UniProtKB/TrEMBL annotation:
Residue ranges constituting the Enoyl reductase (ER) domain according to the UniProt record: 11-320
InterPro entries: ADH-like_C, ADH-like_N, ER, GroES-like_sf, NAD(P)-bd_dom_sf, QOR-like, Quin_OxRdtase/zeta-crystal_CS
Higher taxonomy: Bacteria, Pseudomonadati, Pseudomonadota, Betaproteobacteria, Burkholderiales
Protein name according to UniProt: Quinone oxidoreductase
Classification via SMART domains: PKS_ER (SM00829)
Transferase among keywords: no
Annotated organism of origin: Variovorax defluvii
Organism superkingdom: Bacteria
UniProt keywords, alphabetically: NADP, Oxidoreductase
Length: 322
């Protein structure tokens, strides 16, 4: 038996309960992983509240890192004792240990500690697919990125700097603005007191930007559209403030391209996933990207971690410690 967070109904953080669960041995094509760190992501809130439906009762959590304790029949490229991480597969990472499909496990290189790797699985790979696949960036471009001091945002700041991209980042406070700039964000906009579209026009001398990465959604949609150049691209990669509803006439005004990407469609097959991870890990090992948890909560305090994330009381990445 291991400890795991489960929920029997959707709702607020209080629905998250620490329970004893049976793990068992891995079957064909599976491996059992003992977690060292578990990542907290905003998508976890979507599952908990029912915005993204799950059959109930269920576990929660998309990504974690740890050590392989056992492998099932047919598993050849993952070894017992190997350090691994993952970001896709069934929900249930909020646990001390679990059985996972071996094909989703990513070996961790020497030189990247578990604590660091826990901030890279979903968040670092998200920066990779946004900047290198969804709308590939080119050196010299200027972009707008919302929530620049968040878990993905701080990695995105550094990745943009490494690529020679000028990043304009929105944040909610002056403290978060300083953090984003320290991580490579060229310009910051404090959305609680500054007009986003007006500031982007100032920074770009009226040209606007060719691409906006918007994980906030409803509250920033109008500003995102206003900041784009004609034939620009709006990458709607999250809806933390609520779902996006668009009248296509809003796009026609500038012939804007709109995409709502999902990681699962950019990370498969396994060979491609490992290539993505290799590129990310290469930046980390070379010192171009650094990433450490800014907050850590005990697994038993998952509800409190959710309250902090929803209340915008966190910066960067947050992890749960089993």
């Amino acid at each position: 038996m291991v400890k795991a967070i489960r929920f029997n109904e959707t709702g607020g953080p209080e629905v998250l309960k620490l329970q004893d669960v049976e793990v068992g041995d891995p079957g064909p094509g599976e491996a059992r992983v003992r977690h060292s760190y578990i990542a907290l992501n905003f998508i976890d809130i979507y599952f908990r509240t029912g915005r993204y439906p799950l059959p109930l009762p269920n576990g929660l959590g998309s990504d974690a890192v740890g050590v392989v304790e056992a492998v099932g029949p047919g598993v050849t490229d993952i070894r017992v004792g190997e350090r691994v991480g993952y970001l896709i597969g069934p929900q249930g990472a909020y646990a001390q240990a679990r059985v996972m499909p071996a094909e989703v496990l990513i070996p961790l290189p020497e030189g990247i500690a578990d604590r660091t790797a826990a901030t890279l699985m979903m968040k670092g790979m998200t920066a990779q697919y946004l900047f290198r696949q969804v709308r590939p960036l080119q050196r010299g471009e200027t972009i707008l990125y919302h929530a620049a001091a968040g878990g993905v945002g701080l990695i995105a700041c550094q990745w943009a700097r490494a690529m020679g991209v000028t990043m304009i980042g929105t944040v909610s406070t002056d403290e978060k603005a300083a953090l984003a700039r320290a991580n490579g964000c060229t310009h910051t906009i404090v959305s609680s007191r500054e007009d986003i579209a007006e500031r982007v026009r100032e920074i770009t001398e009226g040209k606007g930007v060719p691409v906006v990465y918007d994980s906030i959604g409803k509250d920033t949609l109008e500003a995102s559209l206003a900041c784009l150049q004609p034939r620009g691209t709006l990458v709607s990669n999250g809806t933390s403030s609520g779902p996006v509803v668009i009248d296509t006439r809003q796009l026609a005004a500038k012939s804007i391209w709109l995409t709502r990407p999902a990681m699962v469609h950019y990370i498969q097959p396994r060979a491609h996933m490992l290539e993505m991870a290799s590129e990310l890990f290469g930046h980390v090992l070379a010192g171009r990207i650094t990433s450490e948890p800014q907050q850590a909560f005990a697994l038993a305090d998952a509800a409190e971690a959710h309250r902090a994330l929803e209340g915008r009381k966190t910066t960067g990445s947050t992890v749960l410690v089993p």
